[in-house]
Amino acid sequence: MARVYMETLIQRCVTFSQIKQLQSHFLTAGHFQSSFLRSRLLDRCSVSSFGDLSHAVQIFRHIPKPLTNDWNAIIRGFAASSQPSLAFSWFCSMLRQASSSSMCRVDALTCSFTLKACARALCSSATAQLHGQINRRGLFADALLCTTLLDAYSKNGDLSTAQKLFDEMPVRDVASWNALIAGLVAGNRANEALELYKRMETEGISRNEITVVAALGACSHLGAIKEGEKIYDYIKDANLDQNVIVVNATIDMYTKCGFVDKAFQVFDQMTSKKSVVTWNTMIMGFAVHGEAQRALEIFEKLNHNGITPDDVSYLAALTACRHAGLVEYGTSIFNNMASNGVEPNMKHYGCVVDLLSRAGRLREAHDIICSMPMLPDPVLWQSLLGASEIHKNVEMAEIASRKLIEMGVNNDGDFVLLSNIYAAQGRWKDVGRVRDDMETKQVKKVPGLSYIEAQGTIHKFYNSDKSHQQWREIYEKIDEIRFKIREDGYVAQTGLVLHDIGEEEKENALCYHSEKLAVAYGLMMIDGAEEESPVRVIKNLRICGDCHVVFKHTSKIYKREIIVRDRVRFHRFKDGSCSCRDYW
DNA sequence: TTTGCCCCAC
């Protein structure tokens, strides 16, 4: 009886001092003889938010012969701590002790806690060692443990092993499916994640709120609105929309698929209590759609709604300013963050540097980069370089590109920018030098890739891609578009091509960009369709300047809205202009 | 005589 009462006391502890009081009481009353109460207290002390892991370690050190559960409590604590890798060191110590003591053995929970640490610490070698231990100890039939292992592999980026485990698992539950779906989304294989989700549907496996959140994440990546809406229908049918995380994922899905008004509808009509993530998702949604006013209106309302803005709230507000060129507003938000208790991080700096640079305040942007308290990320210098090109500031461009070279960043776009600046000044010798640099430095080129959803499948296009079944028709469509928009005044932006080739070749180099292929395909597929649906394309990089001009003309000539989501924002082309108002 | 899996904004 006393033990049950004591256990209740442990569970009722909500402050560290209560734990310590209980501990001294246990000591005097001799309750530490009971390994059960001891490990309960250890566990409470090492994992709860008000606990103290170092104190738990102290208690542990005074145990003459720690048992399995004492070790588990400590390992569990480290797994959840800021130094998860220490959990693995403790696991190794435990293994050594277990080999000489019959009172202590590595069990399923030990492995589970340690694997959680491997996932958080991104340690693939430790994950593989745990995998070996699990097999050796015959724990492979434990479905929960197996899912933890699968998750550790996928968080470490080893999706093929995760997939193999999934296929070989003797027992799978919904969490196993969820772990693999989430892993595939995080590993940039959202298409396969959706396939797996659909397989659950056809195989009649029950889906829970975690399943739909992961599947919605896949739709967000792909811009797969049809599938996303189907999932949302299921969410409503299954009454999963009382879960705030599910609603947040839905709002994000709608914005990332290009339907920010539908996102707002969900946001506005939701019945579950909004969390800070809900607000942040909506602010960011408006921000990337260039709707700065609506974003900032909500941002201003946070405090009235009992929400303390966090680092992401500020990032979202700054993003809104960045995409709308609201320099004064943005800098004032940035300057006031710290006094509101949120220290700017790299992303905040990235926003404000980009904001100032584009506005032509290159010197201020430069000074911020040079005075910031952490080592600047290369993207900050890239912002400065890009804006130097827009504002034709050779000196600043040289400073920025020198920094990038120093940092070992060999990105082709940076070289192209610098070369363009020289070219604009007629400094052909410098243009030649940059080009030589590009050859000797083995410049990296990230391949451009665009997606479009048509007739229920996602079609992928690379630059000058001829792998699509209908590639000939697509290329013909592009020629038709070029012909028609030339009559509308289109002139190819051949200045964007670096190679020393003739004008016509330069134009050809531009005209089969992945986003052009995708848009042409989209126009082909919805030609004659009664529905006035826009062409929606997703690109992995920033949209190219020539494509931007082409789509403006195309939207007008073909009387069709074109929506392109690039790496950082949405462009909505309608009647010859773009929602970004050419500010991007 | 207890504990463990999978999820949202950046």
From TrEMBL:
One GO BP annotation of this record: RNA modification
Keyword Kinase: no
DYW domain: residues covered: 489-584
Sorted UniProt keywords: Repeat
One of the Pfam families matching this protein, by short name: E_motif
An annotated Gene Ontology molecular function: zinc ion binding
Domain of life: Eukaryota
PROSITE patterns in the record: PPR
UniProt xrefs under Gene3D superfamilies: Tetratricopeptide repeat domain
PPR repeat segments: 142-172, 173-207, 243-273, 275-309, 310-344
SUPFAM superfamilies named among the record's database cross-references: TPR-like (SSF48452)
Membership in a protein family: Belongs to the PPR family. PCMP-H subfamily.
PANTHER family: DYW DOMAIN-CONTAINING PROTEIN, PENTATRICOPEPTIDE REPEAT-CONTAINING PROTEIN
Protein name per UniProt: DYW domain-containing protein
Organism this protein belongs to: Arabis nemorensis
